[in-house]
Each structure stands twice: as C-alpha cells, then as structure tokens.
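Q: Please design a sequence for this.
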C-alpha cells in the first residue's frame, strides 16, 4: 500500500490479501493511494494512484462493526473579545457521532469532553444508531470559555463493543482572542512584529502571537506569510504577504482582516488610516487589490481604497493615501465600536 505524502508516494503498509483496512483518515480530507507488487523482496511497478475522500459510501467490512467515532466538532469555534463572536461562560459543545459499521447500537454509548486536560464531563444520552448512520449531539453541560486565551478541548466516545479505540477521540483548539481598546496618542502603528513567523494556507481567526489578524482565502492555493525573508518587510522583520502558494492560472482571493478596538473614540473624533504596501508583481488582477473598512464585525464593508496598479511601481514600497475613517463611517451612520476593521 502506498500513499502520497508531500511530493512522493511512500509505503504505508503491506499485505498478502486483496483488501486492506486503513484507519485514522480524516473525512474532510482527500488522499492519493496506490498499490505495487513485491516479489522476493523486490518491489514492482506502482499502479496508477486514485484520489479518495473517506466520507459517505457503504462499508460492509466486519472489522467496522461496533466502531463508533466522533468525526467532527461542530462547535464551539474561536471568538474575539468585545465583538459578536465573543465566547461566554455557557458555551455548548456540539459534535457529530458516527456508527461506522453495519450493526445497530446494542448497548449504552457515553460521550465525554475535557478542557485543557481538566476533569472530564461524561454524559450517557441514550443514543441508538442504525448501521452506517450518525447524529449530532450537544452536551447538556456547557463550557466556560470566557477567559482570553487558548483552550484545547478533547472529546471522545465510549462504546463497550468498540473494536477500534484509535478513532474514538477528536481534539479541537478554541481561542478567545484578545481585543483590548487601543490608544492613538497620537498614533498607533501595527507592524506585525508580535506575529510568529508563520505561513497560513487555510482560513484562520487570530495569527499566532497577533490576535487582531484574521485570514480568509477562496481556495487551498491562497496564502499569507508573516515572514518571507530578511529585508522583505517595510520595517522590522515582519509583514503580511498575500500570494499563492503555487503559481496557478486560477485566481485566488485572499483577505487579511485586522480588528482594532476603537471604543475609546467616537465619530466626533477625527481618525485616519494610513499604511504602506508593495506589489511584488505577477498579479493579473491588480485592480482587485482593494481596502475596505467597517465600524463593527456585524456591519457591511465599505470600499475606501484601490492599491496602485502601475507596473512601474512593482517591487517598491508605497504609502497609501490618507483614509478618512470618521468621515466614511459617519456618512453611513456607523459607530466606532470594539470591532472596527
């Protein structure tokens, strides 16, 4: 048995049978698998690989009977202080429980969760599942996630006849992001220096080390990096570089979202936004490189700036024009709350 890992097909198992049960796969991911013969210790030519996503479909293997798994965490997700996403002291824990075999439930099922390796919460809800079926379950005991910081939540299922304990448990990390009011006095600069050197290719709420930054992307080829190389940033060693992980003809829409708590100010204060940016080139849609602002995380975005599209300025740092935050939001009757972006 061979699986694509990184850029090469690697051996993951061997068998003399014509079938093999591979455990521990993520139903949200796709995998490339293949096989090759081995005779007298010498491997033969590998077959064409196939791409599969281990979700759905029938499974009649007897080895899967009575095998229960918590295959996904529905909630909670990360939140940010002083915004609509702020987590409280009574947050529900919700998961999806799946019966992987073809045999219906024949005994009690218990579900448990533990936060930061603390005392487990265990509930026996009287769930009965038909073969190859699943259900969502919300724990009656809620979690206190109100304190800023990072919580690791481990959730697991116990069924007495379960032959495979390796897929009983799932772990999720939930962040309550810091969002304290900022003081301009007379200016405030975000240079990304507190951000850990990292590359993000999937949507994330809160960069490691810099809670105010979020990233979204339209496809798996999107990327933001906080450190590319020495001398790459405008000042210090950090910046936010948005690009594609691999050159592709498919356009990728990347969004860097920064949240600033402006609750110390009102629309009677004159506030401006300025920033420096650099177009690295190889961008066929430069006219789509824009800046939006909004007065809170529940309000619609307002376009305020289009980055320079001149080919002559590729590779050069440029200052933005002075963006009138107060005037823009005042014209739309928006306040300056803790979630200004």
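A: Design:
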């Amino acid at each position: 048995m061979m699986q694509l890992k990184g850029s090469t097909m690697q051996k993951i198992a061997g068998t003399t049978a014509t079938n093999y049960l591979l455990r521990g796969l993520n139903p949200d991911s796709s995998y490339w698998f293949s096989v090759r013969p081995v005779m007298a210790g010498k491997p033969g030519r590998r077959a064409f690989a196939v791409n599969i996503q281990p979700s759905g479909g029938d499974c009649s293997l007897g080895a899967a009977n009575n095998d229960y798994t918590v295959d996904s965490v529905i909630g909670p997700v990360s939140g940010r202080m002083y915004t609509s996403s702020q987590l409280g002291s009574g947050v529900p824990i919700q998961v999806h429980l799946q019966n992987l075999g073809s045999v219906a439930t024949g005994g009690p099922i218990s579900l448990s969760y533990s936060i930061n390796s603390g005392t487990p919460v265990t509930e026996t809800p009287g769930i009965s599942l038909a073969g190859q079926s699943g259900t969502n379950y919300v724990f009656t005991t809620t979690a206190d996630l109100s304190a800023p910081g990072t919580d690791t939540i481990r959730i697991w299922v116990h069924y007495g006849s379960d032959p495979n304990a390796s897929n009983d448990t799932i772990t999720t990390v939930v962040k309550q992001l810091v969002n304290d009011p900022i003081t301009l006095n007379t200016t405030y600069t975000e240079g990304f220096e507190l951000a850990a050197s990292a590359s993000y290719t999937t949507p994330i709420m809160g960069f490691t080390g810099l809670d105010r930054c979020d990233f979204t992307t339209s496809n798996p080829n999107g990327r933001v990096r906080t450190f590319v190389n020495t001398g790459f940033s405008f000042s210090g060693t950090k910046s936010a570089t948005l690009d594609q992980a691999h050159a592709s003809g498919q356009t990728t829409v990347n969004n860097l979202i920064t949240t600033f708590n402006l609750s110390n100010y009102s629309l009677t204060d004159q506030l401006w936004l300025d920033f420096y940016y650099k177009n690295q080139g190889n961008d066929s849609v430069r006219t789509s490189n824009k800046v939006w602002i909004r007065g809170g995380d529940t309000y619609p975005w307002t376009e305020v700036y289009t980055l320079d599209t001149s080919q002559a300025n590729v590779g050069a740092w440029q200052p933005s024009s002075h963006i009138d935050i107060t005037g823009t939001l005042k014209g739309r009757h928006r306040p300056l709350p803790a979630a200004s972006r």
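Q: Thanks. Anything notable?
A: Residues 1-55 form one domain. The mean pLDDT is 91.
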